[in-house]
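Hi support team,

I'm opening this ticket because the web form for multi-chain structure prediction keeps timing out on my end. I have pasted the exact lines I submitted so you can reproduce it. The total is 519 residues across two entries, so I didn't expect it to be a heavy job. Is there a limit I'm missing, or should I split the entries? Thanks in advance, R.K.
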Amino acid sequence: MATRAARLSAEPAAGQAATVRGLTRSFGDRRVLGGIDLDIARGEFVALLGRSGSGKSTLLRVLAGLDREARGEIGVDAAVAVSFQEPRLVPWKRVLANVALGLRGHDPVGRARAALAEVGLTKHLNAWPLTLSGGEAQRVSLARALVREPALLLLDEPFGALDALTRISMHRLVLDLWERHRPGILLVTHDVDEALLLADRVLVLDEGRIAHESAVPLARPRHRDHHDLVALRAGLLRRLGVDPEETA
Amino acid sequence: MASTELDLPAASRAAPVRWRLPGTGWRLVSPLALLALWQLASSTGLLPERLLAAPSAVAATALDLVSSGTLPEALAVSLGRVAAGFSVGAVAGVGLALVAGLSRAGEYAVDPPMQMLRALPLFGLIPLFILWFGIGETPKVTLLALGVAFPLYLNTFAGIRGVDAKLAEVAEVLRLSRGELIRHVVLPGALPQVLVGLRQSLGVGWLVLIVAEQVNADSGLGYMINDAREFLRTDVIVVGLLVYCALGLVTDWLVRLLERRALAWRRGLLG
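Hello R.K., no limit was hit. The queue was backed up. Here is the completed structure from your submission:
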């Protein structure tokens, strides 16, 4: 198991998809991450909440191995996959080729086809990415991540640009795929409801530190009006500096 | 009407091309109108043949030149020059752009001299080339290669550097090797700009050919034109010019065809 990213990197602790200790990251004088400790167990669904500028995307980029300037002990399973907010499909490759891109091992195209079938895009195998809707493109991006059978799946606000209805069906899809494949997931989002509906555990990142952590011990599918969720939501919103009464 | 009975090389070469592209037939209307005006001016004696032959005379001469084999021979020589010069220039231009575009070290090594050489007036080099290479084919092909290399170099370099950094991150996340990154992301991403460079360089290439063939040639289209000047044969000169035109149009069309196939992924390009 190779390790990714950063100084003093290490493999994640046993049973973990990612283990981070004392992670710091500064851009010039500005310290964006100031000592992060984080564990993501294999098969665990973790949501990371934070206002914009809280450093949540930076943390995800460190875990993805895209940021080599971060310092600290960073152990990430070698099988890590990412889905970004903009689907970042390669526009000159058809959908199937996008999913199969860089895929090693036995029958990459067949596996890519199967992954696309899982996200319900069998009909668009030969489509150009620019002809897809936002939701379709995001599903291709998910298939491209999942086909790599990641131990850790990093989702960087993947539903942020989607309309409300598409987002709901994407939530179902992600839960469905997670339950079937059981990767550890870190979902970066600014949507408290999304975090509560999906995750086992919700972290709040504030000024470069994990300021708060809530377990969400509720069976799925969850209903946003469940009284436990309502209480959790109010607590999280307060942590994010929002008055829950105003948003209700 | 003269315009319908004419069989100008330009028209005969360009027409089937355009008919295949729906909607572009309209683009033929104004050129044909100009042609009609020209014929009218010649027929009424407003435009003496000594200055410019009538389109009908040009057409007849064109047929003669083709059937006598003069034009095909000259064309073959000129095409050979362009092919040689273009090949050398394209390989050099794209090759240097790859070296400069794919690494910082390559950029520092290649880009400054290229930018300096680019500032040299191409045709101003002709005297030097004659001293270096004599008056045979070498100076012509070298001049062509230089003219072709720069637009391709500049555009390919810009195209490579303009590839979306976010896609490079995707490649990293997907664990693409450097070779795969170049093959699947960088080169296809640079391709639209490379094709712009290709069109520019072909344009420059024809221009350089014309100039190079004027300088000193004992064969080729330029020679045919120069020879015609000695005998005040404006019809032959016009035929030669039209052949140059047609060649430019054909190569431009070929690149556009290539663009439509290679860039089919760009929504909206196919109209």
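A quick check on our side: The domain at 68-262 of chain B is CATH 1.10.3720.10 (MetI-like fold). Let us know if the file doesn't open in your viewer.
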